[in-house]
Automatic annotation (TrEMBL):
Pfam family, one: 3HCDH_N
Phylogenetic lineage: Bacteria, Deltaproteobacteria, environmental samples
Site label Important for catalytic activity, positions: 138
Protein residues bound to CoA: 47, 54, 117
Protein's name in the database: Putative 3-hydroxybutyryl-CoA dehydrogenase
GO biological process, one term: fatty acid beta-oxidation
Alphabetically ordered keywords of this record: Oxidoreductase
GO molecular function: 3-hydroxybutyryl-CoA dehydrogenase activity; NAD+ binding
Keyword Oxidoreductase: yes
Organism this protein belongs to: uncultured delta proteobacterium
């Protein structure tokens, strides 16, 4: 299992492609947007340039990694892939549709992996048409930095599929946690509560900078919940929160009014320059 396909060349997909290539895997990427693929390669190069300046990587590391990454014009090029990892929009229908589309080209032995942050793996696997060959691997952002990966088996995921994906994840030198196939898995179930309650406290007049300072200094979080929400993207946060609330029906997971308001105004966090915080315009 040395040939990996990554579908979706946004921030998460590019990070997954980078760590797989760094580990020596032959990585083929695809995105419906040519611009996204161009930005993906440029982003990986920029990531390496930053690490090289800090003495954490060499030019040779950069060259070897980039040599292991190619970009495909269409999904037909995925015919020889052993594993396909999707990192597309967090919507069950979108993800299932993508797996069905690529499924027309790959072999019957090809393993499908979803980077969903909380959608039901069993439902996704059943609808994909190959329930024993699909499972979840929830990476965290930014992928080259964050060590944790949640592995999630569907109710029909085979032992062989799980072991193959676990082996790849170990090769990436990640910390592996087996998570249950429930809304939000483990991390997001805990994290969404913190983010949501911080958002609700803003409605009561709390200061966002002070709230995040409390989470960092008091709870030892490397980044406050509101800043992390901005980094992740408030569009991603609202989708994740809504999915968990739909699955559990618990008030703690209902979308906070402040989050909904920011989303409706198009303030999605760092990527738009404004979310819970305001960010300087990119040069």
């Amino acid at each position: 299992m040395k040939r990996i396909g990554v579908i979706g060349c946004g921030f998460m997909g590019s990070g997954i492609a980078q760590v797989c290539a760094q580990a020596g895997y032959d990585v083929l990427c695809y995105d419906a947007s040519r611009e996204s693929m161009d930005k993906s390669r440029a982003g990986i190069e920029k990531s390496f340039d930053s690490r090289i300046k800090k003495g954490k990587a060499t030019e040779e590391d950069k060259r070897k990694t980039l040599d292991n990454i190619r970009y495909a014009a269409d999904l037909a090029a995925f015919a020889d892939r052993d594993i396909v990892i999707e990192a597309v929009y967090e919507d069950l229908d979108v993800k299932v549709g993508m797996f069905k589309e690529v499924g027309a080209y790959v072999s019957a032995d090809c393993i499908f992996v979803s980077n969903t942050s909380g959608l039901c793996i069993s439902d996704m696997a059943e609808r994909s048409g190959r329930p024993d060959k699909l499972m979840g691997a929830h990476f965290f952002s930014p992928v080259p930095v964050m060590k944790l990966v949640e592995l999630i088996r569907g109710n029909k995921t085979s032992d062989a599929t799980y072991q193959a994906v676990r082996t790849v994840t170990e090769d990436l030198r990640k910390v592996i946690v087996d998570a249950p196939d429930g809304p939000g898995f483990i991390v997001n179930l805990l994290l969404v509560v913190i983010m949501n309650e911080a958002s609700r406290m803003l409605e009561l007049g709390a200061d966002p900078t002070e709230l995040d300072a409390v989470l960092k200094a008091g709870l030892g979080m490397p980044m406050g919940g509101l800043g992390l929400a901005d980094l992740s993207g408030l569009d991603v946060c609202i989708k994740s929160t809504a999915n968990i609330y739909e699955g559990l029906g618990v008030r703690d997971f209902a979308v906070p009014r402040m989050l909904r308001r920011l989303y409706d105004y198009g303030h999605l966090g760092l990527k738009t320059g404004r979310g819970y915080f305001t960010y300087p315009a990119k040069a």
